[in-house]
Amino acid sequence: MSAGSLEDYPLISPQVRRRLLTTLLKNVSRAFYLSVRVLPSEMREPVGIAYLLARAADTIADTPTLTAEHRRTQLLAFRQMVAGEVSAGAEQLSAELADLQPTDGESELLDSLPELLALLNALDGADAELTRSVVDTLTSGMHFDLATFSQWDSENPTALQTPEQMEEYCYLVAGCVGEFWTSMSVLHADSVAHWDEQEMRSLGVRFGLALQMTNILRDLPKDLQMGRCYLPQTILDRAGLLPRDLLDATSIDSARPVLSWGIRLTLDHYSAAERYILAIPRRNLRLRLAAFWPAIIGLETLLRLSRSAEWLNADIRIKIPRSSVYGIIALSLLCGRSNTLIRHWFGRIRRRIERELYDSNEDNKETGH
Predict the structure, then answer these.
(1) CA torsion sign, 60 to 66 to 70 to 72?
(2) Please, are residues 169 and 144 in contact by the beta-carbon 8 Å criterion?
(3) Burial of 184 (0-12, 13-18, 19+ CB in 10 A)
(4) How far is the C-alpha of 12 from the C-alpha of 285, rounded, in Å?
(5) Which of 128, 167, 195, 354 is the most exposed place for a label (fewest CB within 10 A)?
(6) How far apart are CA 95 and CA 93, in angstroms?
(7) 184 neighbors 106 (Cβ within 8 angstroms)
(8) Nearest to 204 by CA among 189, 188, 219, 184
(9) Per-residue pLDDT tens digits for 275-333
(10) Which residues, at least 6 apart from 180, have a Cβ–Cβ distance to it below 8 Å?
(11) From CA 99, how far away is CA 24, in angstroms rounded?
(12) Cβ-count burial of 101 within 10 angstroms (0-12 exposed, 13-18 middle, 19+ buried)?
């Protein structure tokens, strides 16, 4: 039997399809679920399947009770199934890993691997190819992560070495999604047929880098406790810091230049995200909103990071309240077709962040940091 044949996977009833692409997706995707639901109908299923498969791979890579080597082995097996190189093993992988997950949503996600692979194999040719490609790139990023941080040392975290290495990592785990999103848009939305796809894919990559850099800055304290520092050592060197110094929440003043560097870099990528959103025709409001929401939520998170005195406190997670997310959604429905109002929205948040960075720099000068 050929690899990836439909006969290798269960038939998916409309009820199961709906459960996977609505209930399960909502349980494991948080804010991204909103973007998937607002997408034009032709894009929802392939994008939703790609997300669930990528989320399953991430869950495998983060299974806490397995060694790094065992996780790499299981991730490779999963990657081969997604690529269609092997046509069996999904049920065994689910059975081995589902009960090891810390949340019900993650357990259900891995329990659903056979059904998810069936949905993947049922996609039309171009959709299936794009979905397999982006999940393959994302899983290669997870392999990079496991290989780089193979030794868990919560007292002496390992840092990436250079900004270039950090950017490579960000591309593998997020930037490639911008390329995928662009190709899916061109494939399914007639309104973007005029796009220069190469230029838009490049902007899409930077859009993904902006979102991933926001995650890196926000999640730094938690990652440090897992022995991982995604901020590069060459940048820490400028501040006279080692990764383990960031474990001390009281070192926030010494670490402020590192945070400022990360925020400025991320802001630059959000400028590309703004250009990407404005390139989506106003008449295609669904596609525009699906990109707009994560960008604005990310920028608002960056603003809160720039203001926070608790950036290094692992007990405090900086995030946007649910009420604020709903407020963003409601307001965007009114102004999402206006390029002027979108530019104003981006510009207002950017100016607030730049003011926070300026004030922080002045405070450091006064205190001698």
Answers:
(1) positive
(2) yes
(3) buried
(4) 31
(5) 354
(6) 5
(7) no
(8) 184
(9) 999 999 999 999 999 999 999 999 999 999 999 999 999 999 999 999 999 999 999 99
(10) 50, 130, 131, 133, 134
(11) 17
(12) buried
Integer-rounded Cα Rg, in Å, for the chain is 21
Q: Find out whether 300 and 324 touch, Cβ atoms under 8 Å.
A: yes
Given a contact cutoff of 8 angstroms between Cβ atoms, the answer to whether 172 and 205 are in contact is no
Separation between Cα atoms, residue 239 and residue 225, nearest integer Å = 21
C-beta of residue 182 within 8 angstroms of C-beta of residue 241:
no
The total of other beta-carbon atoms located within 10 Å of residue 77's CB is 17
0.90 exceeded by pTM: yes
Beta pairing partners, 158: 228
Joined together, the tokens standing for residue 315 give 């007990």
Q: How far apart are CA 72 and CA 60, in angstroms?
A: 9
Report which of 132, 165, 142, 94 is spatially closest to residue 4, judged by C-alpha positions.
132
Residue 163 neighbours by CB distance under 10 Å: 15
Give the tens place of pLDDT for each residue, 64-88.
Answer: 888 888 899 999 999 999 998 766 7
